[in-house]
Amino acid sequence: MEALLHYCWKHKLFPLEPLTTTDHLPVEVIDPGLHNRHAGPDFFNAKIKVDGMLWVGNVEIHDKASDWYQHGHDSDAAYDNVVLHVCGVVDAIVRTHKGQVLPQVQLSVPKHVSDHYQELITIDRYPPCYKIIPDLTPLMIHSWMSALQTERLEQKTEAVRKRVALCDGSWEDAYFVTLARNYGFGVNGDAFEAWANSIPLHAVDHHRDNPFQVEAIFMGQAGLLDMEMVPERYREEALSEGYFTRLRNEYLYLAHKFGLKPIDGKLWKFLRMRPQNFPHIRISQLANLYCSRKAGLSQLVACETVEAMQDVLATNVSPYWETHYVFGSESAKSGKHMSAHSLRLLMINTAIPMLFAYGRHRGDDRLCDRAFTLLEQLGAEDNHIVRMWQECGLTVENAGDTQALIQLKKQYCDRKDCLHCRIGYEYMRKK
Asked: What CA–CA distance (Å, rounded) separates 395 from 402?
């Protein structure tokens, strides 16, 4: 397996016997080089001694030496600087574009490395590396968790950048879309993002002083003012109450004024969902938050504490939704404030990543550092992923830790990418 050969070369996990070329010349690997994940040779700027002579250049790795020709490297000038060809099986002499014969090393993967790798990708228990976790040093765990935390924020930053591009460069609009997506709390995330992208905020802003009109636009664009979206058993009551009709009439007027087209209301999911998370409630909360003018990007950037960020994101529903979860179905009166748990998730998944992304955009390290600090100040999340790692022996202290562990599972464990995981490295190198 070529990927495993790459791994052994990168980490110098070589067999016990000395390395030699196929011509029996001794080989000493001083520096395996920089792993290249793009086009061109596999490792750049390696330092290799062959028969006592130092060579500085690139290294190419293949399962079989003949792959050199199958991949067309013999006619590609980009491979003329290769100083060593490393293969699982040397079955051919290889030449560069200039006709130079390359020294070759036949490298076998150490048995303990291949055995442990097979164990990691085939074991039933999750995570597969559970046995080694209690033996890991605190320093190793801390450094890997810090890297994972940064990696997760960088990944979310890339998602924000794409939204900024779709919003014609508007960071304010991209923040609203990001916030809306996370109001879906996973289940309705895609629907909320499609809904937010359908709303022309530059037009809605003219009506920001009128919460009823904003709610009409928000509900209408969600497709929730279509009578088919009201459960049949509640339709008569919804019409008699009057609020649904007033919202719908207001929306039809504003939709004509601004040329609005709603998303398909059937995108929303309700099955096995707590009524508190119904889109009607979340959209009313977002409408109130939008009208309050306290949750814009500038207000977010000004937040220096968890408490300040909570205050910026705190919101409520309009009076009608205090006694309803859907149109026409009256319930016990409740303020339906954004819960502390929901606020924490919004800070972790929206506000802090947005702060980090904007800091990257502005080249302002203070904002990026503040994002890390806020994550460390927030309590640890409690979900099945976090509990899984805790059962394996990892200590979880704050939201920074939990975000790192979520990144570890989703980007490494779920993809069986143990070759790029530091815990996987510790597992495979042990004798």
From this structure: 10
Amino acid symbol at 251 = Y
Q: How does DSSP assign 116-177, residue by residue?
A: HHHHHHH-SSSSTTTTTGGGS-HHHHHHHHHHHHHHHHHHHHHHHHHHHHHTTT-HHHHHHH
Residue ranges of the chain with pLDDT lower than 50? Answer: none
Per-residue pLDDT tens over the stretch 347-368: 999 999 999 999 999 999 999 9
User: Count of alpha carbons within 13 Å of 120, Cβ hemisphere only?
Assistant: 26
User: Quick one: CA torsion of 295, 300, 303, 305, rounded to 10 degrees?
Assistant: 80
Tokens of 405: 């562990």
| Alpha carbon separation from 223 to 158, 194, 230, 248, 326 (Å, rounded) | 29, 11, 10, 10, 13
Asked whether 59 and 42 are in contact (CB, 8 A), the reply is yes
Nearest-Å Rg of the Cα atoms of the chain is 29
Q: Which residues contact 335 (CB under 8 A, 6 or more apart)?
A: 316, 317, 322
Give the model's pLDDT for residue 16: 79
Helix, strand, coil percent content, the chain, rounded in steps of 5: 55, 10, 35
**205 vs 394: CA distance, rounded Å:** 48
Name the DSSP letter for residue 398. Answer: S
**Token digits of residue 181:** 């997506």
CB 334 within 8 A of CB 322: yes
Q: How far is the C-alpha of 305 from the C-alpha of 417, rounded, in Å?
A: 36
Pair of tokens at residue 135 = 């033996």
Give me the DSSP letters along 172-195: HHHHHHHHHHHHTTTTTHHHHHHH
Residue type, 45: N
d(CA 128, CA 54): 41
Helix residue ranges per DSSP H, 323-398? 340-346, 352-362, 365-377, 384-392
What is the model's pTM? Answer: 0.84
In this prediction, residue 335 carries a pLDDT of: 67
151 with 145: CB under 8 angstroms?
no
Render pLDDT for 103-135 as a digit per residue (tens, 0 to 9).
Answer: 999 998 888 888 888 888 888 778 888 888 999
pLDDT of 128: 86
